[in-house]
Amino acid sequence: MVDFEPQKGAEIKKERPAIVINSDALGRYLPIKIVVPLTDAGKKGSFWHIPVSPDKKNGLKKESVADCFQIRCASYERFSRKIGEISPDILRQITVTVAVLIDYQP
């Protein structure tokens, strides 16, 4: 869980689940993580909303979407607890979507 307060404008807010997408090796340099927040599944419909269904491994309680357009860095101090792990397939979908959003072209 990550606390996204204080929020400005259309930014995502409150404490909510988020998916860490950066390499663990990067944590040695700065005490921050790159995260994609999860939000209510009712917001799905845009290509940057990746559906995530609850299961025993991820620890979610309800249908959600990873909002890849709200990607951000979060200090370790914003993290309250780990609730689970996302599947490699969902993580792949998220990273591909982020690459499209930033117009990454290898």
Description:
The chain has a single domain, classed as SH3 type barrels. The chain has one helix spanning 88-101, and strands at 2-3, 15-16, 18-20, 32-40, 49-52, 64-67, 72-75. The model has no long low-confidence stretch (mean pLDDT 93). It is α+β, with helices and mostly antiparallel strands. Strands 3, 4, 5, 6 and 7 form a five-stranded antiparallel β-sheet that branches. A two-stranded antiparallel ribbon has the order 1-2. It has one helix and seven strands; from the N terminus they run βββββββα.
Report the β-strand fraction as a percent range. Answer: 25-35%
Instruction: Kindly give the count of domains.
Output: 1
Task: Give the % helix.
Answer: 10-25%
Order of SSEs: EEEEEEEH
Radius of gyration: 13 Å
How many beta-strand elements? 7
The overall pLDDT average reads: 93
Mass-distribution shape = globular
CATH class (first level) name: Mainly Beta
CATH architecture: Roll
Q: How many DSSP helices?
A: 1
Query: How widely separated are the two ends?
Result: 32 Å
Report the CATH topology name. SH3 type barrels
Low-confidence stretches: none
Largest sheet: 5 strands, antiparallel
